[in-house]
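question for whoever is on the cluster today: can someone run the full assembly for these? two chains, 774 residues total. i dont have access anymore since they changed the login thing
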Amino acid sequence: MSKTLYTITVFSENRVGVLNQITTIFTRRQLNIETLSVSPSTIEGIHKFTITTFADDEVVMKKLVRLIDKRVDILKAYYNTDEDLVHQELALYKLSTEKVLEHGSIEYLVRKYNVRILEISKDCVVFLKAGHFAETQALFEELANTIGVLQFVRSGRIAITKSKVERLSDMLAKREEQKRALEQEKVME
Amino acid sequence: MRGENRMGEEANARKEIEAREEILSGSEIIVRALMAEGVDTLFGYPGGAVIPIFDALYDHKERMRHILVRHEQGAVHAAQGYARVSGKVGVALVTSGPGATNAITGIADAMMDSTPLVVISGQVTSNLLGSDAFQEADVIGVTQPITKWAHQVRRVEEIAWAISKAFYIASSGRPGPVVIDIAKDAQVNSCTYSYERTTFLRSYQPVPEPEEDRIKQAAELINRAKKPLALVGQGVTLGNAEHELQAFLEKGGIPFASTTLGLSAMPSGHPLNRGMLGMHGNVAPNIKSNECDVLIAIGMRFDDRVTGNLDTYAKQAKVIHFDIDLSEMDKNVMTTVKVVGDAKQTLPLVTDYLEERTHPEWLAEFEPLHEKEYDRVIRSELYPEGGAIKMGEVVNKVSEATRGKAICVTDVGQHQMMSARYFKFTRHRSLVTSGGLGTMGFGLPAGIGAKYGAPDRTVCIFVGDGGLQMTMHEFGTIMEHAVDVKIILLNNSYLGMVRQWQELFFEERYSSTRMKNPDFVKVADAYGIKGRKVTRREELDGAIREMLGHDGAYLLEVVVETKGMVYPMVPAGESITNILLGNSQ
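^ ran it for u. tokens below:
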């Protein structure tokens, strides 16, 4: 059975050990994490995790995000397939300067792959490419076959949904409302 | 009236404490915070990393009772027993490293059975954290997957905040255990104390709001049903929704059966009660799970011991699932209508839309199955005409002698299933047993905690010879604190449940299940616990009377049939309708 790549987005309170709580749930459900990216979100004190994983179907994802969402420190968790997302990865390629000069087709590579050059020294040249997995992989393969790659690293995926608002803001607004209602109840008492 | 006065006094005292802002040590703050949460009993064991907390407790002996157990596992199980019968949060206090790791089994048990607990563990001084210091263990790392929340406190300023959160999280929504791991320097250092109870966390919504359309859909489905069957789980008890459930079932004329943990939510003798579900449950409700047209699950989670093989379970039925925990929905059984929310709120909303119904023909369909079970299993288990004493026989006699009013605490194994099957309940929160985790050694300490949680009630602890020996050291706790529990040891000199599986599925190869046991009455005697060993049926009634009449703890050892079997039995992984009844007629 072919598996689908899902992107799971998690918003959490910025606390020690949250990542551990999330990964434990993947482990228990026997899911491998393909990529992982963590960063502060636009809202202070809230971190955003973008995780990709292969799974058989949506049923698995539904159960997974419910279990993540259930954790006390997690604000919101949801999953998407690639169609719902604008997503991107970054890749860095370290090449030998000598070999690059020998090769002599830098302009071709830069134009074809939209490569940015971050560093040139006596010993090495560092390329940066942003794109989908297939794109960064294609460049890697071409470089490996022609010039040779000294070092290669790819970031985890970052992604945003194509829909209008971030679902987190809706949720937080609702929670604020509930908080106010609770406080009023307290005052009434 | 006196009770009310006392509660009033307590409330005033609490307010007083809350109002004052003082500079206090971390340990004093811990004790004050516990008092602010209404805690008056905790179970624990001292050690290097919690000496300051025990020192603070020394000043508050009048208002904060500490029950010194004999092993940290016992502290947590006792806190569980306390919480299960009282509905309050159970509190355990243990030291760092081995103290905390000894508590793990209880914490995992509480997680599986949704028991509200706050476990406070000491931790090494914060500057030593991560250095493999003496008695250091990564308690947060270890407990995170088996707790609702686990948090490490490294600074004194965080203590009040963390404890307040801990109680809120442990007791709200679907309850569960919380671990607060407090570094020793945080206990010793001082800061300003003020306490505010937590009622809101933006990242945590304990009670989802009922959805009107789901409520209506559920009611419509039930109103149209010809053969409805309700499955009652512990969620009803946890949500204090027993009366709401009763009204719901009675208006709809809906027969019901309970999971093991759901048993005392409704009276055993209720006319709609069709018994217990699952592997060792009653024949009729198991068979009827696969014949009903609408299956109504309330605060239960379709455990594999309840459903058997999921591929053949209730496929004919429309399923309505009431639960507070969204992650339980469609986890094991796909549902037609999900009613997410607190059963105390959602059940009355559905009841309002229900038409008053009785289902006499459907109810009658259960009868022949019940008669079959009675003839093949129950009669010979409860009223044997000769031979060795039977486990079910003892449970039934104790149940009758306490007129169904006692709290039944069990350990795990054959005697547990016999207790669940044959103890009769008339009052809520009356069965304390380890359901999800199936922890042997649970019974004795949980029974101690249950007595503290319900001091006015008789607590009967059913244990086997295997399980008792896992936590038998808690006889020391019973002795020291004069805990009045009635221990009924059903001794078959075997690890009976495993032996049963070996007999049925492993060609009677009894590998490591026969036990050479000590003289239990002598052991009890060494702890000053009165005991009596019964081997003959004629003595049994008198011995039970003596036990119940005795002022104080009592061990009644009953030597039962060595190779008794718990029937009915649905073999693990098989269809819930594939029920073994054994050979006895």
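summary bc i know u wont read the tokens: The two ends of chain B are 55 Å apart (CA to CA). The interface with chain A takes residues 140-141, 144-145, 148-150, 152, 169, 199-205, 325-327, 329-331 of chain B (CB under 8 Å).
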